[in-house]
Amino acid sequence: LKSGGANTAVTEKNKKEYIERMVKWRVERGVVQQTEALVRGFYEVVDSRLVSVFDARELELVIAGTAEIDLNDWRNNTEYRGGYHDGHIVIRWFWAAVERFNNEQRLRLLQFVTGTSSVPYEGFAALRGSNGLRRFCI
């Protein structure tokens, strides 16, 4: 687990470090092959030079989008059909309800309606459906 560790007794003082190192070793040892295969596959699809400019958080944002909902962006990129429009009373009720939601409730609504629980890093204008760009529609 660490250099010279075999000759070091575990005590109350170093117990936390021992447990952390043991857990890390057991977790990593069990998935090394799978992780390496995932990384190889990822780099077959995405050029590693393109990814190297991102830190882990930025890469997650590019791949998965954001979990924070910008309500103005959502509203500004919503399409209305069937006689509905931004000023329609039902639409005003809808947005008033969504404004009262916390972010988790907004994400659940978004997932229920679109099948995705995150917003692309470009915002709602880049929301995608199974056949390409697809704006949120009421």
TrEMBL record:
<comment type="pathway">
    <text>Protein modification; protein ubiquitination.</text>
</comment>
<dbReference type="GO" id="GO:0005737">
    <property type="term" value="C:cytoplasm"/>
</dbReference>
<dbReference type="InterPro" id="IPR000569">
    <property type="entry name" value="HECT_dom"/>
</dbReference>
<dbReference type="Pfam" id="PF00632">
    <property type="entry name" value="HECT"/>
</dbReference>
<dbReference type="GO" id="GO:0016874">
    <property type="term" value="F:ligase activity"/>
</dbReference>
<dbReference type="GO" id="GO:0006511">
    <property type="term" value="P:ubiquitin-dependent protein catabolic process"/>
</dbReference>
<protein>
    <recommendedName>
        <fullName>HECT-type E3 ubiquitin transferase</fullName>
        <ecNumber>2.3.2.26</ecNumber>
    </recommendedName>
</protein>
<dbReference type="GO" id="GO:0048814">
    <property type="term" value="P:regulation of dendrite morphogenesis"/>
</dbReference>
<feature type="domain" description="HECT">
    <location>
        <begin position="1"/>
        <end position="138"/>
    </location>
</feature>
<dbReference type="GO" id="GO:0061630">
    <property type="term" value="F:ubiquitin protein ligase activity"/>
</dbReference>
<dbReference type="InterPro" id="IPR035983">
    <property type="entry name" value="Hect_E3_ubiquitin_ligase"/>
</dbReference>
<dbReference type="InterPro" id="IPR050409">
    <property type="entry name" value="E3_ubiq-protein_ligase"/>
</dbReference>
<keyword id="KW-0436">Ligase</keyword>
<dbReference type="GO" id="GO:0016567">
    <property type="term" value="P:protein ubiquitination"/>
</dbReference>
<keyword id="KW-0833">Ubl conjugation pathway</keyword>
<keyword id="KW-0808">Transferase</keyword>
